[in-house]
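Weekly sync, protein design subgroup
Attendees: M.S., D.O., the rotation student, P.L. (late)

Item 1: inverse folding check
M.S. brought a backbone from last month's batch and wanted to see whether the design step gives back something sensible before we order anything. D.O. pointed out we never logged the input encoding, so this time it goes straight into the notes. Structure tokens as presented (125 positions):
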């Protein structure tokens, strides 16, 4: 058997080689039964901080993730910023300071805080 065919390698128009990666397809779902995720438990996971920005294309997934954790009984601290985009903390010092403040608040938050929906600031995620 031809090794190029076996490895799914083909030639581009410019003569260079490329490989068609065959990744498994598993559609995401937010209504997956929690018992199918055995590790998702308040006994296994500690309190979790989930942050997001309205301009971040991943913010919807962060919301779904936070809700999934809450349904599993995990204590979630969620924070949504109105202004921003993915990775804004790298480019804007004031956003980096806000991230540090959120992490400090999360780390030093009273351990007896109620599970689910604790808000650090801003809007509910």
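Designed sequence read out in the meeting:
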């Amino acid at each position: 058997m031809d090794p190029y065919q076996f490895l799914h390698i083909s030639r581009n128009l410019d003569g260079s080689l490329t490989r068609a990666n065959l990744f498994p397809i598993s559609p995401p779902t937010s209504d997956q039964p929690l018992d199918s995720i055995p590790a998702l438990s308040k006994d296994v996971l500690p309190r979790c901080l989930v942050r997001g920005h309205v301009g971040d294309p991943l913010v919807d997934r962060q919301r779904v993730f936070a809700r999934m954790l809450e349904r599993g009984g995990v204590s979630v601290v969620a924070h949504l910023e109105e202004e921003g985009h993915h990775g804004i903390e790298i480019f804007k010092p004031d956003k980096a300071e806000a991230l540090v403040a959120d992490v400090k608040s999360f780390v030093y938050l009273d351990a007896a805080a109620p599970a689910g929906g604790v808000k650090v600031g801003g809007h509910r995620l």
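Discussion: The longest strand covers residues 48-53. Residues 114-124 have pLDDT under 50 and may be disordered.
Action: P.L. to compare against the previous round before Friday.
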